[in-house]
Amino acid sequence: MAGVTGVRVRVPASTANLGSGFDTLGLALGLHDELDFEVVPDGLVVEVGGEGVAGVPTDERHLVVRAFRAAGAHLGLEVPGLRLRCRNAIPHARGLGSSAAAVVAGVAAAYGLAGRELDTSALQLAAEFEGHADNAAASMFGGVVIAWTEGDRYLAVRVDPHPGVSPVVLVPAEESSTHTTRGLLPREVPHGDAAFAAARSALAVHALSTDPSLLVNALDDRLHEPYREPAWPATSRLVRALRAAGVAAAVSGAGPSVLALPVGGELPAGVDLEGFEAHRVPVDLGGVCVAPLG
Length: 294
Description:
By secondary structure, this protein is an alpha+beta fold. Helix content is 31%, strand content 29%. The protein has helices spanning 63-75, 98-113, 120-130, 134-141, 178-182, 191-209, 215-218, 225-228, 233-244, and strands at residues 6-17, 21-40, 43-50, 81-88, 144-150, 153-159, 168-172, 248-251, 258-261, 276-280, 289-292. Strands 1, 2, 3, 4, 5, 6 and 11 form a 7-stranded mixed beta sheet that branches. Strands 8-9-7-10 form a 4-stranded antiparallel beta sheet.
């Protein structure tokens, strides 16, 4: 895309942890923000519509702009001015990866304007903003991702999801803060809980890619969800109710949304969803998309 003076970026939401895969497992969701980046003679103009319109800055503090600047510096990309138009569909502060999607969009746009394909450095740049790569990798690559670190390097691999994985996200009106909910986690966990988490996270990869019938067991967790319950008790109650009804369910990211993976994509009757809005969304298989702005 060398010589292009504008790009359109389409970036998916994500759900992370997937039970016991804390900071490790992610799944891209077919719910997208769309952003236009246009190089202009000077200055910065940020226009935001849709989700989060009232709560985000419209200057250099905007997360997309910050990620774009960081990636641009890495690539040696210089733009005299920038007009950014955001059409947001991903709910903010609900555990659906809105901040990671914003960062990935900024990084992808810089790569697109520089005429470069996304590479391992792109994931590194994106993950550095959050300190873990699960959401960022899911938004970047699509499908199921397994993320890990080696020293200060962030790495991830993509796994094809089974076609029977049919997400339903249940989104409450209340917002949550990842920083706040991380503060509820203990510094140490019992050895038995650590072993439980290791087994369940490994099983989750198999269930998501090969055998969705195992998802109810695979998404169980003792590593972080019980400790975060005081922050969103209604979320925890809904996870338990869904699991009691035989539906694989987990807290989505840091909450307060709930990820459900029902067989056939339909929730059973009788589960009380009061306070939550259900959205059936497909798995996003392609990750972030960048095209010339025409």
